[in-house]
Amino acid sequence: MKVNLLILFILCGSLVSAQRADTLSNGIIVFSDYRLPLLKSREAEVNSAALKIKARYIKGYRLMVLNTSDKNYAFKVRAELLQRFPNQKPYMWFANPYIRIKFGDFRTREEAERYQAQISRILGGAKIYLLNETIEVNPGKDFDPESMRAEILSQ
């Protein structure tokens, strides 16, 4: 009886095949919608436009201009910075009981040091500290995402 069952299983196993050779040699045929390449190009345009608008963050420098508890003086210094340097941004926040003002988004130390000397003269020789920080970079019209990615990776 056992021998008969063994022979039966061997015969059944030899008749069954999981794959046929002719299906393996043909390859794969994919049917896709003709609008897919159009959608892909439109998505790439939208992503590229979004990259040009969105602010990015990289390692850079800021200046610690002021750390005081005098609110009126802090607003006066902030207004002076905005008036004299409209292309740079002062960051003002309250850490009770102090008001702190950091200034600028500088990519290089040399650029930050130039502003440091100018602001020190404006504030009557006050000590301005140079800080390593993560800065905002707002790309312009001629922004190239690949160059930005390379700059971030090099840091």
How does this structure look, described?
With 155 residues, the protein is of the alpha+beta class. The chain has a domain at 56-154: Sporulation related repeat (Alpha-Beta Plaits), CATH 3.30.70. It contains 6 helices and 4 strands; from the N terminus they run H-H-H-E-H-E-E-H-E-H. The chain has helices spanning 2-15, 21-26, 36-53, 71-84, 109-122, 145-154, and strands spanning 56-68, 90-95, 98-106, 129-137. A 4-stranded antiparallel sheet has the order 2-3-1-4, covered by helices on one side. A hairpin with a 2-residue loop joins strand 2 (90-95) and strand 3 (98-106). The longest helix is centred in the N-terminal third of the chain and has 18 residues, at 36-53. It starts with a helix and ends with a helix. 12% of the residues are buried.
What topology emerges from the helices and strands here?
Elements: H1 2-15, H2 21-26, H3 36-53, E1 56-68, H4 71-84, E2 90-95, E3 98-106, H5 109-122, E4 129-137, H6 145-154
Antiparallel strand pairs: 1-3, 1-4, 2-3
